[in-house]
Amino acid sequence: MISSSTPLGLLIVFVLQFLAGCASSPRFAERTSDGKAATKHETSAGAPSRSSGKVLLTLEGVASYYADDFHGKQAANGEIFDMNAAVAAHRTFPFGTKIRVTNLDNDKQTVVRIIDRGPFKEGRIIDLSLGAAKQIDLVKTGTAKVRLEVVEWGDGKLYH
Fold it and tell me: Quick check: pTM over 0.70?
């Protein structure tokens, strides 16, 4: 029998605790009509739903864009980044999440799909592809204050 006070026992306990900490849990909780926490894919009626036709979460912050240096390279979800597609990078939203992005300076909008991780510059909440940045006139300024509206949660699966 391996004791938890032996080096091997301590290692096993550490690994088990580490793996338990990696367990899946809801990252974006909202409240249902009765005040209980709902998971990110749960409607107020409690039925699972990825898209309810309404805005699921709204955030505001600064957006930037990325293009040439990453064009043709693999994004974090496994697909090849196309700088002309309507895609984006977000630090935590599940891959496949669809977000309506509104440039608050001119009210122009685009809908993007999350395929990558970022932005990694402090103070920014989303990195848009060049194609998406063009749709909301973000290219000339490089950054803009935007509103993000999640319209459909992604399944977080990697591209195959």
Answer: no
Q: Domain residues of the chain, as ranges?
A: 53-152
How do 143-152 and 98-103 pair as beta strands?
A: antiparallel
pLDDT in tens, 75-104: 999 999 999 999 999 999 999 999 999 999
Closest CA to 78 of 116, 49, 128: 116
How far, in Å, CA of 40 to CA of 38, rounded?
7
> Which of helix, strand or coil describes residue 153?
coil
SS3 annotation, 16-29: HHHHHHCCCCCCCC
Fold of 53-152: Barwin-like endoglucanases (2.40.40)
Q: Which residues contact 14 (CB under 8 A, 6 or more apart)?
A: none
DSSP 142: S
Strand spans (E) along the chain: 30-31, 37-38, 57-66, 87-89, 98-103, 109-116, 124-129, 143-152
